[in-house]
Write a sequence for this structure.
């Protein structure tokens, strides 16, 4: 089970505790007993902080070891659940489902990248097998020229493997900043907050959080701008949110749903870019194959036999 899948399972166990009738404080203190084993130590520390009097939203916002980029969304859900009530368990289940979809996309991307990388490196590493066959050529291998050929051929094959590894794209991160902000705001809206309160809550994450862009928009709101105007005047991350929110207002559809679709679209675009780069990788591999792998074949395969022929003439 991946870390994302374990995160989703942890959120489902927390939702089950809330659904069983426990309050926010009691559910969080009991959470360590039902969550995946890998999170037990962090959740035990969470229970201690709650016992010492810290508020649940504050503790959850710091729980990045368990919740990653979703920590602030869960903190916002609990803050609104504490103040307004509502079905927090249902919102947590929806968030867990979104994390499961993220995990499936990342798992498929990693499998595709690993397959391309493995096949490329196997082809690039095949010349090294010729080192085992070199003694059959009866050519001298331990003189200066023989050692130089072995070193050059091995270096060319290693360079080809490294180059091919650089050409295979890395899978997109599951913690896409634009998608995380949209998910955080959507979770707060599902929990019962107004759009202004949800945006305000999402902008108060820690300094390392992707919500830094949203905090800049919040400063514009403090200076007198409206939230829609502040979002539209923000950077690329907020511009997509502004479009989604504006479309929801025009069509009269739920803003939370529009933001969830926007988050899914952000991740879908990242996956599409990764797949396009992965399709280009075999074409680009012609370069290391031509300049590293084929010369390695020539040096390690043909070199010893040519020396044998030359010595016999």
């Amino acid at each position: 089970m991946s870390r994302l899948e374990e995160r989703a399972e942890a959120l489902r166990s927390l939702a089950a505790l809330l659904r069983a009738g426990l309050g926010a404080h009691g559910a969080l203190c009991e959470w360590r007993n039902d969550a995946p084993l890998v999170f037990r130590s962090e959740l035990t520390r969470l229970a201690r902080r709650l016992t010492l009097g810290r508020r649940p939203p504050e503790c959850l916002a710091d729980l990045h070891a368990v919740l990653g980029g979703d920590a602030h969304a869960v903190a916002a859900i609990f803050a609104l659940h504490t103040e307004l009530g509502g079905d927090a368990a249902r919102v947590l289940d929806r968030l867990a489902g979104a994390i499961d979809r993220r995990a499936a996309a990342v798992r498929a991307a990693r499998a595709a990248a690993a397959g391309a990388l493995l096949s490329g490196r196997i082809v690039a590493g095949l010349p090294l097998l010729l080192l085992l066959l070199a003694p059959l050529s009866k050519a001298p291998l331990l003189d200066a020229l023989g050692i130089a050929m072995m070193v050059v051929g091995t270096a060319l094959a290693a360079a080809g493997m490294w180059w091919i590894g650089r050409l295979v794209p890395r899978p997109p991160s599951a913690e896409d900043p634009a998608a995380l902000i949209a998910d955080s705001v959507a979770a707060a809206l599902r929990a019962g907050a107004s759009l202004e309160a949800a945006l305000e809550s999402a902008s108060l994450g820690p300094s390392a959080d992707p919500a830094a862009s949203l905090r800049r928009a919040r400063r514009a709101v403090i200076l007198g701008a409206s939230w829609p105007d502040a979002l539209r005047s923000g950077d690329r991350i907020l511009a997509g949110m502004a479009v989604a929110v504006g479309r929801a207002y025009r069509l009269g559809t739920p803003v939370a749903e529009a933001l969830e679709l926007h988050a899914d679209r952000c991740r879908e675009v990242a996956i599409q870019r990764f797949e396009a780069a992965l399709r280009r990788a075999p074409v680009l591999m012609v370069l290391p194959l031509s300049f590293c792998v084929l010369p390695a074949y020539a040096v390690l395969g043909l070199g010893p036999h040519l020396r044998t022929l030359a010595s016999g003439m």
Q: What stands out?
A: The longest helix spans residues 88-125. The chain has a mean pLDDT of 80. The two ends are 64 Å apart (CA to CA).
